[in-house]
Amino acid sequence: MSETVVSAPAVRRRGAASAAWSNARAVYIIWYRDVLRYSRERAQVVASLAQPLLYLIIFGTGLSSAIGGARFGPSGANYQTFIYPGIIGMTILFTSIFGAMSVVWDREFGFLKEVLVAPIDRSAVAIGKTLGGATRAMIQGLLLLVLAPLIGVALSVGSILGIVVLAFILAFALSALGVALAARMRSMQGFQVVMNFLMLPMFFLSGALFPLSGLPDWMTILTRLDPATYGMDALRRAVLGSAADPLGVSLFGQIVPIWLEALILIAFGLVMLGLAVRSFQVRD
Amino acid sequence: MDQPVAIAAEGLVKKFGEIEAVKGIDLSVRTGEIFGFLGPNGAGKSTTINILCTLMKATAGNAAVAGVDVERDPAGVRSRIGLVFQDPSLDQQLTARENLEFHAFMYNVPAAVRGQRIAEVLEMVDLADRANSIVMTFSGGMRRRLEIARGILHTPTVLFLDEPTIGLDPQTRRHIWSYLEALRDREKITIFMTTHYMDEAEYCDRIAIIDHGSIVGLGTPDELKATVGGDVVTITTADNHAAATELSERFQLAPMVDNGTLRVEVDDGAGFVPRLVRELSVPVESVAFRRPSLDDVFLKLTGRAIREEEAGPKDMLRMMGRAWGGRR
Questions:
Q1: A130-164 burial, b if ≥16 CB within 10 A, otherwise e?
Q2: Residue B57 domain boundaries
Q3: Closest residue of B to A35, CA-based?
Q4: Does residue B236 share a domain with residue B218?
Q5: B199 and B242: one domain?
Q6: pLDDT profile of chain B (328 residues), mean per 10
Q7: Domains contained in chain B, number
Q8: How much is the ipTM here?
Q9: Fewer CB within 10 Å, N side or C side of chain A?
Q10: Scanning every residue of chain B, which has its alpha carbon at the shortest distance from the alpha carbon of A125?
């Protein structure tokens, strides 16, 4: 044999800076792909607003009448106004989890392979997918802000900024959770389980539809373990203004400040992101 | 003249539990050659390709692609190879150009050359005029071409193709091949591909025949065919069984029964046929002789024919998926 093996240039080391840069580019393009696809799904975007509207208009009006026009909090919000931020949070919750399931779609349709064989760190995949899903969910939730005048909620530039930040933090935490789950799923069949045993309980326990005070102990504990609780509560206080603060979720007898709720969500999101990274790093 | 090695593998073994899918494969693929990996389904082709592409870890043995060890520096290998998978892996909701842009970012193609390189590869596979169409509207052949364009976008030194033409009609398959050959000449790229279509293997510079996880034959198509002997004679008779006995006893040949016909290898087919018809006691119904094909090589090496009908249910599903176009 007249062949010479080209000697491996002893595991070529790219500079750490350039590796970080190529991973950042990968995060960007994975995020951008999600946003690009979202921008093409206009019909779906409009259709997915139907569910929150049903909750607000029909469920809200119906239950409001059933409970005899009860008022919530010191500012005396009616039921519809009370659940309005909760419905924004619900939209973020559902869109985040649904969005993360696109990882499973990508697996089934083969595109995930293209992503996973690229010479980038798998953490870039997890981060890009999480940020892409979070962006979609945030926008989807914020779209509902156009209803504020109809609900009778006055928003200022300051409160809108606060809502945007909180909506993104909630969307990030829930998208990270979704991606961590989806990274382990091999088919869409598992999605039914995720929906019934995770997404819906998280929604019902989050306080989107009722105040989380005066509940039986077992349920109080469950609501406090639900990360979505802190997002819903923070959103409610940002949307309805500081007058709603006394409605806030309490831990150990203290009302949790909004900044702490945001921190809890960020911490939860980062832990989930870590799990997602690990799931993607598994190689056969 | 010394030629550098694009792919080198020694003693590759892959076990899935108790099952040994790959049983110690040695390979040496030269730079710039089209190397075919030929074998039936389940022979270990895809497993081997997955190990070389760093998608799977070998149980034992070692391999280097483009001079980089697959075990020690998988990312280094991945940046130097292009991949076209057996199953489609495009984002069907994006345009051809957007799919390529995604790839360019993932493979760190410098921004300065990105647009030009994308135009170049689209031109190469005749898709320049469809650059801004959504992939969902593409035919199976167009999607494959786009995947090939994507595979070479980041100027890899080795291009791996896993059954690149499975499920495509013969005309499209020929088309894909002309692109691959042009590509090799233009980009000086090494092409490593698996196939179970014998006629396609003819396009390769060298072929390895793999069966039950081991390489059973290696060489150029002509070299392999030369191992079969001069000519292949296929005979049908009134009683194939009796004829087979007679052929081996009186003619000192090794007849093989295949699908109701007998086949023997002889040095001189033109001289053998008249003698056969004259001397065989069993009446001959038909007889034909031809130069050996790779099918004959495969039959000789493995004792059975490779057939497209061997495609398993999963392949059938794949073909249907392609035939029906967009699945989403």
A1: bbbbbbbbbbbbbbbbebbeebebeeeeebeebbb
A2: 5-222
A3: B94
A4: no
A5: no
A6: 77 89 91 89 86 90 92 90 89 95 94 92 91 94 92 92 82 82 85 85 90 90 83 86 84 80 83 84 85 82 63 54 42
A7: 2
A8: 0.85
A9: N
A10: B106
